[in-house]
Amino acid sequence: MAARLGHTIKAALLQVHSIAGLVLALLLALIALTGAIMSFEDEIVDHLNAGIMQVTPRQAPALMPDDLIARLKAAQDVGKVSAVTLSSDPAAAVHVRFARDERGARPTSLYVDPYDARVLGSPRGEAFFATVRRLHRWLLLPGDAKGWGRPITGTVALSLIVMLVSGLVLRWPRRAGSVKLWLKPNLGLSGRGLHRSLHTVIGTWVLPVYLAMTLTGLWFSFEWYRDGVAWLLSRPQVTAAKMPAKSPRGAGRAEPAQPIGFDQAWTAFQREEGGRFSRALLTLPAGPGTVMRIRSWGMNSTLETTRDEFRIDAVTGQLVSAERYADKTFGDKIIAAIYDIHRGAILGWPGKLVFMIAAALMPLFSVTGILLYLSRRKLRRPAQPPLGRLVPDRVSREG
Q: What pTM value is reported for the model?
């Protein structure tokens, strides 16, 4: 009885695993391959643009951000500046980003000489990786994060978790303690046997990586999932403290007559941080408020997530809030590191390499899964009766 029940459960899981794989094979391969392409995006972009990211240090002080932007706009027609990346390194160029235009397109960013606002060039590879990122996250569907692409990729991630769990149950061997059965593919087989060996064994290798990818990827797809993770890992009082800070000049007031600049916030940030930062990203408020967000990375920071975040009033220079990475709880650090966990960067470049290879292997499971499904259908097809039974023998008819 127990054996029959187990067989029924496995048969149902096989159906779920197969149907989900067939329906989502193309999307899974697409999302995984674009993720693999982005694995070493930072290193590739830095290498391609090494010539425009550095300048010759000079004795004269670097320009203040507002003066630099004013000179940049006077020299050429550029769009509305939305953010600048400044560095404590006197040889580092300033990275200037622009807001979206009337058509919703974002102009290419520029690297600018911090001493005279001379344009050094636009970063090569930026547009390519931006397109790959939109394909990975939102399938290039209209609306980007606000469109249908976001819930679709989230649903694909949920389905992949179901496939991983069902696949693990289906391949659970009688001798579960045998490392050879779990991890060694049988390359001496051919046809269906080889496809099954590759599908199950390599799937076992990458299962932990795929689980890490999907569980962290859901953070970017569903608000309910994000709220649940935050509730589990972050203390309620910390979560409340992370609510967007209101400007001390009053929330909801009309936008100032004069455009908001960077100088006041930059001066306040330098006063607060001194020489403890390596680079800082200053982002203008998107709405009518005056509070500017500044993200900064320390001298020894190697991860995107190990950053401090400040909110400073861009008009008065008053510090509104300061959230330092070193002061975060363990749970908050996990939340902050979700993006680096998602791409394997939390383990350094070896981790990124492992995650890239695992993502690049996804088409293998799509192909072998389809082949296994087709071979099962062929095996289940009833055998054709012999031709002699379909066309009676003349002798037997005449006899």
A: 0.84
**Residue-wise pLDDT tens digits, 282-301:** 999 987 889 999 999 998 88
Question: For residues 115 and 63, is the Cβ–Cβ distance under 8 A?
Answer: yes
Look up the CATH architecture of domain 235-328.
Answer: Roll (3.10)
Spatial contact of 211 and 162, defined as CB atoms under 8 Å apart = no
Single-letter code of the amino acid located at 139? L
Q: Do the beta carbons of residue 185 and residue 198 sit within 8 Å?
A: yes
Q: Where are the domains of the chain?
A: 2-42+144-221+353-377, 50-123, 235-328
Give the distance from CA 61 to its chain's centroid.
38
Q: Which two tokens stand for residue 178?
A: 């045998």
CB of 315 closer than 8 Å to CB of 256: yes
CATH topology of domain 50-123: Nuclear Transport Factor 2; Chain: A, (3.10.450)
Exposed (0-12), middle (13-18) or buried (19+): which is 102, by Cβ within 10 Å?
Answer: exposed
- d(Cα 188, Cα 360) in Å, to the nearest integer? 24
pLDDT of residue 250: 46
State the residue for tokens 């031709």. Answer: 387
